[in-house]
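Worked example

This section walks through a single chain of length 675. The input is the sequence exactly as stored; nothing has been trimmed or padded.
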Amino acid sequence: MDPDYYVLGITLSQGHAWLPLLTFIGGISAASAMVIVTTLALSSMCLNHLLLPASYPDPKVNLYYWLLWGRRLLIGLIILAGYSFYAFLEHSSGLVQLGLISFVAVAQFLPGIVGLLYWRRATRDGFIAGLAAGILVWALTLLIPMLEKSGFLSAGYSVQQWQAYTGLDHWSFATFWSLSLNGLLFTLVSLFTSQRPAEAEAAQSCCSSTFIPLSGAVSARSPAEFKRELAELLGRSTADQEVDRALADLGMSPNESRPAELRRLRERIERNLYGLIGPQMSHLIVNRKLALDARARTALADSMRYVEERLARSRSLLHGLTRELDTLQRYQRQILEDLPLGACALGQEGEIILWNQAMEACTGIRGAAAIGYPLSHLPHPWNELLAGFARASDSHVYRTQIQAEGRTRWFNLHKAVITDTSISGVTEAPGMVILVEDLTQMETLEAELAHSDRLASVGRLAAGLAHEIGNPLTGITSIAQNLRYEEEREAIDQSIEDILVQTNRITHIVRSLMNFSRGSEPLRQRTEVGLCRILEEALELVKLTHKEKNLLFILECQAGIRLKGDAQRLSQVFVNLLSNACDASQPGDSIGIEALEEGQQVTIRIRDRGTGIPDSFRERLFEPFATTKPSGKGTGLGLSLARNIVLDHQGTIEIESEVGRGTCVTIRFPGTTSA
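Given that input, the structure is written out below as tokens.
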């Protein structure tokens, strides 16, 4: 029977009356689906590649409405053309033959498609030459014989003798020779012709190991400008809908202004327009209204992200040295991401190109929200801290503090300028790397350590205080006992006055001890304090603990000197230094304390005539727990804490010592207005 009805013939031969009926219904369903799918595909292709390029609608017309009815019209014409084709050819050629002839015709594209995708040397001339040769053989061996059989024309030639000579059947002969000649001419013509620039670019884009550099920036600078530009060709409503749709697809803000994100938006709009008006018209419209400015310098952050995304998608296709370089790049990138210090790298235009995980944890700002923007776009206070440091001439800033998240935080900042010298010797605009070291936890620990050392000092002061307080208490007790027997008013008043004097003496001693022992938190507000009063209180506390040595203390403090700082922490510095001077002195020695203003600085010198510091120990002077005192006589934290407190007050500390001749400690602080 006719090959078109083989399926029905098989079911009829089985003798079941209902089976051919089900088969016929299934065939009708499959044929209807084929007609629907093919018609829709052809209507879109004709609309995008024929109708729109020939007659693009006026922007004032609703584009969606115009496209809908244009596609409906094309569907009707295509169905009519298909029926006409059936009416002319079906009576002499079956569907099977028509399907095989169409298959061989479509197969002529295979050599060119495979070659263009995987062979860089392929050219447009070679593709056309091969396709033309294959179509010619196909027409001579299949199309013309079919038309001759249908009575449309008389060719007057036959290929049966060539077919018999090769030993191939009719279909194999046509397929083999059409594809062979197609591939042969495609290869030869491509080898003997040169590629045009556009062909070379297209060939590179199809090669898996080649990356297209991100060049140029979109001329439109915001989504609002995108809408205005596209409205001239698409109409206002269509342009608004398509831009809003692309923004929603990308999860992008309507206020986006970064060049890289605007380029992504441009590509997304073009991709969305593919389904609406086809790739040819969408590419034409986007290139015309959202053109790329090739002269605009692409931000380094954009190029890095683009290349990294392409590498991530093509990882499995890399081989050899390319794969090794990619592995090394990933390893180096991971080192920067996992670095325990906050790292921020800036491109040549000042935009952020790196924002590692430590930076995210330190600032609370996600890398996606920072990369591509300049430092000035960061939230407060990070914009002032980092942008100010980037503009400053200093490469290092130590112990700077800011108010963030409702608390005070301390940081060390470091930066390095990166210059890129090209092969031609021209130095490009510099980039920069900024490292941020969070010292907040260390500052808190140091404050707690200082408080602990202060409490230890209080313990050492206890013995002297007990003796010092005991004397006025004994006097108060004796005076109180005598009051029982006093009858004269003057004597009673004098006794009361003596008791008050002794009580004030005790109160003064206890207050000095409490001021010294009180903790000083890192958040404590610094105020202007009188330096002489701090030195006097520190000296009074030290005298209590070293009374048995009969040391002579000489305090020379210029009147009116004031410092901006924390009185308790400054007091601890002087108590620690005076205690060290007392421990190093012999009974009867003198210790001098001098404080004066020198220009814009306040200088304090503490001199003793003690044993001095050995040369072998001087390099470890400010190390925690380093001490020359016997075990149990000191914690070794005094100088370390004193140095940290001085540095925290923007001061400096220097120690000059000579064994057997004594030590001089010099401290300098920034001055303030005299009282």
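What to look for: The longest helix spans residues 440-483.
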